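Input structure tokens:
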């Protein structure tokens, strides 16, 4: 993802809240497995 402008980063929808979120450097190696936009949404997954 080096040299990619912010508006061109990959995007997904959060499985809990449904809001779109974009790729982050810390998710570089696990992007296919990322389902939630935040730790808060990840923790709430069982509530829904």
């Amino acid at each position: 993802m080096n040299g990619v402008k912010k508006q061109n980063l990959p995007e997904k929808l959060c499985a809990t809240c449904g809001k779109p979120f974009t790729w982050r450097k810390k998710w570089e190696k696990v992007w296919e497995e990322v389902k939630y936009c935040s730790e808060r949404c990840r923790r709430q997954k069982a509530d829904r």
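The chain has one domain: 12-47. The chain has one helix and two strands.
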